[in-house]
TrEMBL record:
InterPro entries: AAA+_ATPase, ABC_transporter-like_ATP-bd, ABC_transporter-like_CS, ABC_transporter_ATP-binding, P-loop_NTPase. Keywords: ATP-binding, Nucleotide-binding, Transport. It comes from Sphingomonas swuensis. PANTHER family: ABC TRANSPORTER ATP-BINDING PROTEIN, ABC-TYPE MULTIDRUG TRANSPORT SYSTEM, ATPASE COMPONENT. Residues 8-237 form the ABC transporter domain. The keyword Nucleotide-binding applies. One of its GO terms (molecular function) is ATP binding. Pfam families: ABC_tran (PF00005). This is ABC transporter ATP-binding protein.
Length: 308
C-alpha cells in the first residue's frame, strides 16, 4: 500500500436490492491506516450492507471501494486478504471444535501450517481450555470471541467489528476490548459498529453516522461531541422552593426535591456562568453545582432526527 493511501476508501458507493430498496445512497468515506473508526446509525441505516460489500458478501450497485489500496472489483483476493470481519450474526458449524474452526479458516486463506496462529489466537481470546470442545457447547460470549479469532487468522491490517458485544456480559466485553486495544496499539486499523454509544465515544478516534443509506456526519469524536448544544446543570440552592424560577436563558427547569434545580440550557445561546447569575439575581444562594456534558447519544439522536 502507498504511504498516502487510505486503509479503506469508499467513493459514491450505492446498493439497490431487488425490489427497489435503496440500502446505500452514494456513500463516500476515507479511513486512515491505524485509525479506530466508528460507524454508527439506526437499524436499517445501511451499516451491515456496507460491511458486507467490503467483505465481498454483497455486490455493490455503483461506486468504488478500495481496501488497503486494492480495488474490491479489480483485486478481490488481495482486498479480502487485507480485511477481517467479525459478523453480527453468530454462525458456526456445531461439529467443529474452536481449534478445528481456526485451522479450517487459515486453510481457506492459504496460510501454510507452520505460519498458523491457532494456539496464539485461542489464548488471546481466553479459549485455550475450550480448544477441543465442540462449538455447540460454547456460551454466547465464547462464540463471539471465536468469531474475533477467526477474523484474525490471516493477520489482516484491518479489523471490522459488527456489533461485537451484542449479548456479551460486561466482563467478557472488557476482555474483548482489551484485546482489540492491543491490536490497535500494534497498528491494526479497527472499524466498529455498535449500539452501545458509550463504547464508540470511549474507543473511536473518529465517527461516521449514516442514516437512510447516507453519511450525515463524519468527524473526529471530540468535534462530533461538540455539536451537542444542549447542556444540563443541577444546582443546589440555600433554601426550600415552592415553585421553579423562570428565566429566558433556561430552556427547561425542574425542581428535584426542595432545594435542587435541574436546568437545561443551550450552550450556543448562554454559558453556565449566565445561568448561575440568573439564579443569584433572583436572590437564590448557590450551594453546589453539578454539570452533565453532552454525550454521543445526544448528538446521534439530534442528527438522526434532523435527517428523518
Amino acid at each position: 500500500m502507498n504511504n498516502d493511501a487510505a486503509a479503506i476508501r469508499i467513493e459514491g458507493l450505492g446498493k439497490t436490492y431487488a425490489g427497489g430498496k435503496r440500502a446505500l445512497d452514494g456513500i463516500s468515506l476515507s479511513i486512515r491506516p491505524g485509525e479506530f473508526f466508528g460507524l454508527l446509525g439506526p437499524n436499517g441505516a445501511g451499516k451491515s450492507t456496507l460491511i458486507n460489500i467490503l467483505a465481498g458478501l454483497v455486490t455493490k450497485s455503483e461506486g468504488q471501494a478500495e481496501i488497503w489500496g486494492f480495488d474490491i472489483d479489480k483485486h478481490p483476493r488481495n482486498a479480502k486478504l487485507s480485511i477481517g470481519v467479525v459478523p453480527q450474526e453468530i454462525l458456526f458449524d456445531p461439529f467443529f471444535t474452536p481449534s478445528e474452526a481456526l485451522e479450517i479458516q487459515a486453510g481457506l486463506y492459504g496460510i501454510p501450517k507452520p505460519q498458523r496462529r491457532t494456539a496464539e489466537l485461542l489464548a488471546a481470546m481466553r479459549l485455550t481450555d475450550k480448544a477441543n470442545a465442540y462449538a455447540r457447547t460454547l456460551s454466547g460470549g465464547m462464540k463471539r470471541r471465536l468469531l474475533v479469532a477467526k477474523a484474525m487468522v490471516h493477520s489482516p491490517p484491518i479489523l471490522v467489528l459488527d456489533e461485537p458485544t451484542a449479548g456479551v456480559d460486561i466482563e467478557l466485553r472488557q476482555q474483548l476490548w482489551a484485546y482489540v486495544r492491543e491490536l490497535h496499539a500494534a497498528g491494526t486499523t479497527v472499524i466498529l459498529t455498535t449500539h452501545y454509544l458509550e463504547e464508540a465515544e470511549e474507543l473511536c478516534d473518529r465517527i461516521a453516522i449514516i442514516n437512510h443509506g447516507k453519511v450525515v456526519a463524519d468527524e473526529p469524536t471530540p468535534t462530533l461531541l461538540a455539536r451537542a448544544q444542549e447542556k444540563n446543570v443541577v444546582v443546589t440552592i440555600d433554601r426550600d422552593l415552592d415553585a421553579v424560577p423562570e428565566n429566558i436563558c433556561f430552556d427547561k427547569v425542574e425542581l428535584k426535591g426542595e432545594r435542587r434545580l435541574a436546568i437545561t440550557y443551550r450552550k450556543d445561546k448562554v454559558n453556565a456562568g449566565e445561568v448561575l447569575a440568573a439564579l443569584q439575581r433572583d436572590g437564590l444562594g448557590i450551594v453546589d453545582v453539578v454539570t452533565k456534558e453532552p454525550d454521543l447519544e445526544d448528538v446521534f439522536l439530534s442528527l438522526v432526527r434532523a435527517d428523518g
